[in-house]
Design brief:
The protein is an alpha+beta fold. The chain is built from 7 helices and 13 strands. It has 2 domains: 82 residues, no CATH class; 81 residues.
């Protein structure tokens, strides 16, 4: 991506090579392939440098739009400060009611929007249910035919439920969005394994 700078200001962005007329001179699209960086800059074409230092993981944050600036002989695209997504649910308030924003089927104190914690916990519940579903047939067989459930299966199903409860508690106890992000951040350990503080749901050993 390039930008055209004229009189010290960015006047146009160029997403891919194309023929251009600059100062009444027509240039072929091939200048983007054949000309050096300094030759392009001599006619006002600068390659955009991307500064992603303020960009954060969109699972946890809302990033600003990129802003473009020309300074020091280069065009830089950068982000402003990201805003953390709400980690807790928000509710309808009296102010919402006073402003006429409260829906007719809602009351003050009802859930307005779900936060990250709720959504993450629902994901854990679905993942645990999916794992348990793989061995539900043992439970059905016992109910229908009286066949005992193998102890390994019983132990596995209990471990899934226990770990899911631990994970949900860890999510609930997270103080803010950065704390939630930390729970899900994988890091390499001294033994070479890669783990996250939240841990993983158990899988059945084959």
């Amino acid at each position: 991506m390039w930008g055209l700078v004229q009189s010290g200001s960015i006047t146009k962005f160029i997403n891919k090579p194309k023929a251009m007329v600059i100062d009444d001179v027509r240039h072929s699209r091939k200048i983007f392939e054949l000309w050096s960086k300094s030759e392009l800059e001599a006619i006002g074409i600068y390659e955009v440098e991307f500064d992603n230092s303020n960009k954060k993981d969109e699972q946890w944050y809302i990033n600003t739009n990129q802003s473009f600036a020309f300074a020091g002989g280069k065009i830089t695209a950068s982000y402003g400060s990201a805003t953390a997504k709400a980690h807790a649910d928000t509710t309808w308030t009296q102010a919402d009611s006073d402003n006429g924003d409260l829906p007719s089927d809602k009351s003050v104190g009802d859930i307005k929007t779900r936060g990250l914690k709720y959504n993450l916990i629902q994901t854990i519940k679905k993942q645990a249910a999916g794992i348990l579903q793989d061995t539900d047939w043992y439970i059905t067989r016992k109910a229908d035919a009286g066949t005992a459930v193998p102890s390994a299966i019983t132990t596995h199903r209990a471990a899934v439920r226990t770990k899911a409860a631990e994970m949900e508690t860890a999510i609930t106890n997270a103080s803010d969005t950065p704390a939630l992000e930390t729970l899900y951040t994988y890091t390499e350990q001294e033994d070479g394994s890669v783990t996250r503080p939240l841990g993983e749901l158990p899988t059945l050993e084959s």
